[in-house]
Amino acid sequence: MVVGQNDTPAPTGYDDPRRNAILEAAGSIRQTKVAWDAYAEGLMIDAASAQKIKAFDRASAEEKAQLLRDDNGEEYFKIILGLFVKVNKVDTLRYLITMLDDLVAENDVALPLMIKAAASLDQGSGPQAVWLYFVKPLEKRDDSYLSHQCARMVARLVLAEQNVDESSIKHFLDWCNDQFTTADRPGVLLALTSLSRVLRRDSFRWAFIKHTKLPSTFKTLLNPEANLQQLYQALLCLWVLTFNAEVVEQLNDMVHGWLAPTCDVLVEAGKEKLVRMAVAFLKNMLIKSSRTTSHEYATLMISHKVLPRVKAIVHQKQYTDEELLADAEIVEQQLKMAMDTLSSYDEYVAELKSGKLEWSPAHRSERFWRESVTKLNDNNYALLKLLIAYLKEEGDSQSVAVAVHDVGEYVRHYPYGKRALEELGAKALVMAHMAHEDSQVRYESLIAVQKLMTDQWEFLGEQTKKAAQGRQ
């Protein structure tokens, strides 16, 4: 099997997951001539091992399969793994990891033999020893081929239900986060592929949601303007993550940063496989959450216009995939039920947690602020703190403008909140935004500052509005 060779074209708009600039190097790496005898002369392996691995290396794929079954196949893996941790030459390391990947991919007995070989070489570590060989090389950031092949091997071990320690899991997830923030597209796609595989295990699911960076980093991968293959693979990861209802219940507010862009992707996407994955993820979030949390998620989806989109999927029959149609029907039913009890406050809370603010009706509704303003104080000002966090946003002027406006409305309808705003740093942030580069932010800041500074807003506010509008 030569990685990357396939005559079937990729769907339009997607990178073919079977072709990748990094892994396509495997073909030329297989042509490398390893000086096995030289490693024997350097005392990295003994002469007998050198002759054994040399003969094995020259054998055909069929002959190698037979040798693994008939000739104490564990010994071949002992030689390869032993060299893998001793050699520094990059060409040899690449060849060794490619040899291991090919053997495991083409022979059912290879992975168990490799695990036994690792345990034999590192007797104190037991069956978990095999992880040490592939987690440590992930640090070789200067060689993307080597690190990604090691990540693929980690995924193979996970799928084989090989037990793994917490340190190795964290090391792997740290590497994924680095790839998502620093790698080019081929690196990001390969890391997503490996991550989607390991997230089938609960140990990786729990570690993922507890990771200090990955949940936030994942938001950036869901940009609706991103490459279609990246969006598909990122949603695949989230779908696999949400197979476990207990994990879903612990996602809390982090999931809002995934749900909002996923909704936008679903509304805008036309490609069936991307639509299928977005709907499947949203369905899991609705049916695997508690009733209260599910209603909150449904509210966010409704505000992002998911209901008419899934209605169209179900009733216009533009897609033929039966699972997609079934999932879309479940999402439609869940959203319709949520609509029956939906309030403007529910919508406002969902929007606050989504990571992006828009000029939705609640922000300028007198009735909403009269009825809901004190709810921002609940749970030690939890919602007010969320609102204030938008004042620190960079690169999203609309969210800042809406947040500044809402801070002004909060203090206008609840004057006792001035002290809380000052203690939470909101007053200083609003005043600083009077010099913001965006004219809408400056305007809203000017109005909000007046609300913060005076108790006679109804009279002074009209004068300030007129003056501000005259300068625009």
How would you sum up this structure in a few lines?
The protein is built from 28 helices and no strands. It is mostly helical.
Q: What secondary-structure arrangement, pairings included, does this model have?
A:
Layout: H1 26-29, H2 36-41, H3 47-58, H4 61-70, H5 74-84, H6 90-106, H7 110-121, H8 129-135, H9 144-159, H10 166-182, H11 185-198, H12 202-210, H13 214-221, H14 228-241, H15 245-249, H16 256-268, H17 272-287, H18 291-303, H19 306-316, H20 322-339, H21 344-354, H22 366-372, H23 378-389, H24 397-413, H25 418-423, H26 426-432, H27 439-453, H28 457-471
Helix pairs in contact: 5-6, 5-7, 6-9, 8-9, 9-11, 10-11, 10-12, 10-13, 11-14, 14-17, 16-17, 17-20, 18-20, 18-21, 19-20, 24-27, 26-27, 27-28
* Coarse morphology: elongated
Write down the secondary-structure element order.
HHHHHHHHHHHHHHHHHHHHHHHHHHHH
Taking all Cα atoms into account, the compactness measure Rg is 28 Å
Structural class comes to: mainly alpha
Query: How many strands?
Result: 0
Span between termini: 66 Å
Number of helical segments with 4 or more residues: 28
The mean pLDDT is: 85
Low-pLDDT stretches are 1-15, 456-461, 466-472
Largest sheet: none
In percent, how much strand structure appears in the residues? under 5%
Helix coverage percent? 55-70%
The oligomeric status of these chains comes to single chain
What does the model show?
- This protein is mainly α and 472 residues long.
- It contains 28 helices and no strands.
- Helix 24 runs parallel beside helix 27 (439-453).
- The longest helix is centred in the last third of the chain and has 18 residues, at 322-339.
- The radius of gyration is 28 Å and the shape is elongated.
- The model is unreliable at 1-15, 456-461 and 466-472 (pLDDT under 50).
